[in-house]
Amino acid sequence: MADKRKRRRSELNPEDEAQLPFKNKLKADSFILQILKELSDSSAVSSSSSSKTLDDLGLSSSCREVTDLSLSSVQATIESVILKIARSILSGNGFAFDVPSRSAANQLYVPELDRIVLKDKTALRPYANISTVRKSTITTRILQLVHQLCIKNIHVTKRDLFYTDVKLFQDQTQSDSVLDDVSCILGCTRSSLNVIAAEKGVVVGRLIFSDNGDMIDCTKMGMGGKAIPPNIDRVGDMQSDALFILLVEKDAAYIRLAEDRFYNRFPCIIVTAKGQPDVATRLFLRKMKMELKLPVLALVDSDPYGLKILSVYGCGSKNMSYDSANLTTPDIKWLGIRPSDLDKYKIPEQCRLPMTEQDIKTGKDLLEEDFVKKNPGWVEELTLMVKTKQKAEIQALSSFGFQYLSEVYLPLKLQQKDWL
Q: Which domains does the chain have, with CATH numbers?
């Protein structure tokens, strides 16, 4: 009985297969695999060519970027900052932090790098000012806590950090925000501070890597996959025979593809952050891209937020623009679900959702972003979305059958090289 419930793709009822729209357009898997092999080879060649940096563009003097620092370097830098403040107090100039501004006005999209970077503007955060006294106190407390982590050589979560002084922080968003400020002040990545987020992202498919010395085979992790380690510095020795990386926005689509073992039919690595991407997943995706030199294809909802999520992976988030060099994955291709797919694949009207006023505003705002304007295909798709005022989730494809995503939609997309 269990075997019947778990019928493989080849054992599907022929009548069920005949009812799947566009299935008759699919060619043999060997044809699609050849297309993927060409895509993989092309990606390997482009990845091998030297990538540009801020220094190459001559923008380094007007922009700020952080780097990975050792614990001893972070500790020494914190002590240097505090000594500087102590000298300022003793000389009668008061107590203030010079904090890099992370406001939208201090950010710059660099087309040559295809990512958002932070400019060099800073702002004083004085203790002797009623509007900044509390934030400067939080900044001092965070520096103290990070200094302790350096001495003890341990990792804690952002939640742990918040609970060390709940009355002062009041809300975790406040301690999280100052933690990013501290990274900017010290000039190091957030992972260098030994403060991590709780595990969120997962990976499954044709990937083997070491996690703190243990070898992990992601083809043997079940449909749940392997949780992406929150501290990427313990990940190494990546090996794969995959032809591409499939980045999936939502958990539901990820589970469908994992259970159908899509990665065995078309060798790939499937990754999801279950919505808004976290730092660990962004670091892990970049590490795979850089080390394995594989193309990355993205599967997101056909709405403005799906495209925003895609842009965070590709161009970086404005909130963490200071660390975009380490967090962004270049040349991610938008595979689906795209606004033009709704009519192309005859998605039923009952599966399309009307866009809210906020959705439409977000879509129009995205059309004004430089990273969208750079890609004519994105502009065309986003314009169509705003014009039709319709959106759809990946799960809309389930109206043709629960396995339509893995059986027809994705194979046909790959066959037609239908990505942007």
A: 21-50+197-415 (3.40.1360.10), 63-196 (1.10.10.10)
